[in-house]
Design goal:
single chain, 165 residues, alpha/beta, Rossmann fold, five-stranded parallel beta sheet, two-stranded antiparallel sheet, globular
């Protein structure tokens, strides 16, 4: 584990467009940490639950056991998984994305950050970031977020709440 184990793993969660990636990137710079985005793992527009589970099962749990964690990025163009990417337990790790904080997060992290902002701002940011590709999927994705949050209570499990509005 990293010598500064206080925040060896930080989970950054929030709804689409809230500012999670920006927050995680800035935090990584300040802490010399590696950022893994669950966005890279979701298997398509209906993959929030699967992406969250895959990150926790193959990256977070092994990492916390002092083992190399890993994940397989999803190729949106080819609609299939890519090659394994490994993350050494010798680096500080930040996992960001909707689904980063889940019910079992209390036992897997000491720092859980919920990032939020106004719904209209979130939507504007998401469409600006992903272009018109995301626009037709906004509601579809938002319903998955709502279902996931109702099941896992991610915001309530956070140790910090940050407003990026």
């Amino acid at each position: 584990m990293p010598s500064s184990a206080e925040y060896a793993i930080t989970l950054v969660d929030g709804r689409s467009g809230a500012g999670k990636s920006h927050f995680a990137t800035e935090l990584a710079r300040a802490r010399d940490a590696v950022v893994v985005s669950i966005d890279d793992v979701y298997p398509g527009w209906d993959g929030l639950d699967a992406g969250s589970w895959l990150i926790h099962e193959y990256l977070v749990r092994p990492y916390l056991a002092g083992l190399t964690g890993r994940y397989r990025p999803w190729s949106w163009e080819e609609q299939r998984r890519g090659e394994w990417v490994e993350v050494s337990p010798d680096v500080s790790l930040i996992v960001e994305g909707c689904g980063a904080i889940r019910r079992d997060s209390i036992t897997t992290s000491s720092r859980r950050v919920w990032v939020e902002t106004d719904d209209a701002v979130r939507r504007e940011r998401a469409v600006e970031r992903d272009g018109q590709m995301f626009e037709p999927h906004w509601t579809r994705w938002a319903l998955q977020e709502e279902r996931f949050l109702a099941l896992h209570h991610s915001r309530e499990l956070a140790t910090e709440i940050v407003n990026m509005g």
